[in-house]
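Action item from last week, closing it out:
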Amino acid sequence: MNKLFLTLFLVINLSCFAEVNESDLNKVTTELSSLNQKVNQLEGSDNSLNNELSEIKESLELMNQHITSLEVKSDSIDYALQNDVNETKTLTNTHHTEATEKIQVVESSSQTNYNKLAMWGLWSIVGLLLFAIIIYIILHKGISKSTNAISAIRAAQNNLEEESVKLDTKLIEILEKQVNLEKNQKPGNVSSAISPEIDHSLALKVADEITRIEKNLSRMDSSVKGYKPLVKAIDRIKDNFKANGYDIITYLGQPYNEGMRINAYFEIDEELPIGTRTITSVSKPQIHYNGQLVQKASVTVSQNI
């Protein structure tokens, strides 16, 4: 069609320029040839473009087919994903329901166990309280019995101490009478020197009894009935002995030192302060007659050295 158009255009141009000279005609012919070549080139280009366009259309069709295939696959994947999501939701809901039920069971069991433990704990506390009450009653009775026994023992001890004081008081009275009787029987003044004719047996006997009584009094409470009168009686008989030339020394409770002229027996007492020596017992007192030693004291010394 393009060639026809061009041919008509050339015929018209030739008719219009019929009178043109040959040289011009040659130019026209040359130009026409050039134009035909260009037309041919354009037609070739047009064909090439048409071929490229066809190829592009084919490519587009292939791409459309591929896109359609991808869309189908995408829909299939979406469907599968939707099914997986639905299944996952279903499984999740199922697991959640099961977990909730298990939690409820565990909570119920825990509550039941807690109630049981609380009940056992309550009964345990009640049992312990009852046991403590029973033990308290038993101990209270035992303590009451022990207290009563201790009170009875103390009462008996107090009675014994009172009876001992009474007997010792009577003994002192008897000894005092014997001393006065012997004093009245002695003729004239007593010599200041020790003579074989003087009998010290009564004085030694009285001194031993005084020592024993003083040791017993040291273990008693001063509130014992008859305690103070007995102490006064001992002081009186000592004064009486002193008036007759006798001096009685017991050393009881005094600190011991190496310069004492006594017979000492030593025993260890760790309850005493370290370095302490104390005369804690006297078996025989020391007796002087008119300044002369008649009898050495025999004592027990407790020490912690």
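Closing note: The mean pLDDT is 77.
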